[in-house]
Amino acid sequence: MAEINAAATMTAVILSPHFDLRKTYFLIAGIAGVSPKVSTLGGVALARYAVQVALQYEFDAREMPGNFSVGYVSYGTTAPNQYPKTFYGTEVMEVNAALLDVAFGYASKAKLADNAEAESYRARYKAGGEEFAAATRGPSVVKCDAATSDVYYSGTILSEAFENVTAIWTNGTGKYCMTAQEDNATLEVLMRMAIHGLVDFARVIVMRTGSDFDRPPPGVSAYDNLFVVQQNGFEIAIENIYLAGVEIVMGILKDWNRTFKKGIAPKNYIGDVLGSLGGSPDFGPGSTTA
Q1: Bridge partners, 26 (sequence order)
Q2: Residue ranges of domains in the chain, CATH in brackets
Q3: DSSP structure class, residue 282
Q4: Contact by Cβ (8 Å): 157, 138
Q5: Does the pTM exceed 0.90?
Q6: 26: helix, coil or strand?
């Protein structure tokens, strides 16, 4: 869908006079590229952070300085892997970790789908040793974070670069595992609408399922990883959105009166890098909200 479409659609839905969304829970779910370091084809991830990893300066790899490992440089800095000095505000979004934990418990009840073809492709990652051990296992539910980029990328260099960005921009607390094209845009709209009391940002869950690996196994090129090999993760990723997601939805409905109607209060900071919802961000330049 990409960021612009996601933001425009979410804005239209929330501003529609047909809906009262002040007590609504939002399950933001979609398929994703998955890091073989953390999860696998068909794997389900619930995220605390969404990081807009491509919101940086960029050099073409053929023109970047010889001592650069990648062409991306955080705003306000002059080399890769540095903390930004200039912020737009959408770089990192943090959601309710207490709600995430509850959603994780529900999703973990699901019997996730798999297929023999995906299992066969996972076996190629055994050549990567312990680093890629998670890739060789069957689907499971994990807690890790989403990287948002309009660019659909493939390969070890970019994946490791954005893995580093996720860690740096969250002060070492974020764990990159899933790639997305929408999450920060969707979350930014929800946050702005929460400022005006139209939604409750503490009622947001971010979930992704692995449809393909973000980088190839040993012996496969980044090009082939994206365009040639059949990873066979798409169908099970789609199916597992439903299988894990419906457990979350049913859990909320069954315990609505006792727990979810009043909401689960966050114990962590929630919102953007600028403290737009109040509170003190545990990442970024600190609150700019009086």
Answers
A1: 204
A2: 3-16+31-54+91-260 (3.40.50.1580)
A3: S
A4: no
A5: yes
A6: strand
Measured distance CA(186)–CA(59) in Å, rounded = 27
Structure tokens that stand for 211 in this block: 């449809």
Token duo for residue 87: 């912020």
Mean of pLDDT values over 158-170? 98
At 178-187, the pLDDT tens digits run 999 999 999 9
Q: Taking CA 22 as the corner, what is the angle to CA 18 and CA 25, rounded to the nearest 5 degrees? A: 100
Place of tokens 């073809």: 117
Residue 237: phi and psi, rounded to 5, are -65, -45
Cite the DSSP H helix spans in 108-233.
116-122, 156-169, 183-195, 222-227
Token pair in block for residue 78:
């002059």
Query: Residue 5: is its pLDDT beyond 80?
Result: yes
Long-range CB contacts (< 8 A, 24+ apart) of 190-195? 190/10, 190/14, 190/26, 191/93, 191/271, 191/272, 191/276, 191/277, 192/276, 193/11, 193/14, 193/15, 194/277, 195/276, 195/277
Between the alpha carbon of residue 83 and those of residues 50, 126, 151, the distances in Å are: 17, 34, 22
Please report which residue ranges of the chain form alpha helices under DSSP H.
3-15, 97-107, 116-122, 156-169, 183-195, 222-227, 234-254
Residues 57 and 186: their CA atoms lie apart, in Å, by: 23
Residues 250 and 159 sit within 8 Å (Cβ to Cβ): no
